[in-house]
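When time allows, look over one protein, given below as sequence and tokens. The question is which stretches look regular and which look disordered:
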Amino acid sequence: GPASARNLGLELCTTEFVVFVDSDVSVDGTDAVATLLAHFVDETVVAVAPRVRTVPAATTLGSYEVANSPLDLGARPALVGPGRRVSYVPTTTLATRADAVRAVGGFDESLRFGEDVDLVWRLVNAGGVCRFEPRAIVHHAPRRTWRAWARQRVDYGTSAAPLARRHPDLLPAVRIGRLPAATLVAAAVGARRTALLAAISSVVALTVRLRRMGLPTGSAAVTSTRLALGAHVAIAGQLAEVVRRTWWPIALVASTFSRRARRVAALAALAGATRAGTPSRLPLRLADDALYGIGVWIGVVREREWQPLSMRFGALDERAGARPIAKYGRGS
């Protein structure tokens, strides 16, 4: 598998830095690699990943992948790790400090999928810094057939349970605050007064925190209302995505008995249009999400690890488990 091949390549290398590149990736020129390697001036950096764009193809599948590839993490640079905006990077192309990868045992060869996420999280847990650098761009060939595309999405989903077993508490289906969760769940089941009370409680709690930070009462109230509204909208989007991707079998069963469940499922499906890019791509977006969810359920049953179906409350401390950084260098 990919993990074994990468470990073999790492074993044969004698250089300080190693760039892993998949066979279906094209790296045009040396600019992308140079941009990645420039980050290693910082001795705490152990891995840097470029933006992975899909090679355009004049097909329905090709145009969809250009806008919706799971390998394309966008145009904003980021630090990478659990609890961060970019929680992982694929090893489709990954520049690494070789000794740092060796120090954590390389890629886990027992993982057929998700070995890239596992490696990045172990590097971060060991105190290393991983970065996503979208100024460096490589191109990845999309799947050529619908069957291969569907299989890829299912395979990606199967990685969730094995990863959850190796990294406890890092892979719930969704992680949200208790008050926003109460607001949205109450609204979904029609308990409007409870939803309103929970929403007001969110604003009050945030206002109190802002007052303690020194903001005047009026400014704190206005700011907390705006922030709470934005947070509820964002969390509603997260829950809609989870309903489409991971919980859709549950939503499907519930929809056969409950009109309200059908409404929630329909709203979650419509919310997928914002991710699809255009309305015409919505069916593909829904199929994409459903296929990933099938993979998650397969992995959960196979591993008997239920965390990927669960809801967790509260923010994940992105620094949890991280140990002091070790300096990596040749001969260390």
The beta strands are 17-21, 25-26, 45-54, 78-80, 93-97, 129-140, 174-176, 311-313. Residues 21 and 74 are 19 Å apart (CA to CA). The radius of gyration is 22 Å. The longest helix spans residues 217-245.
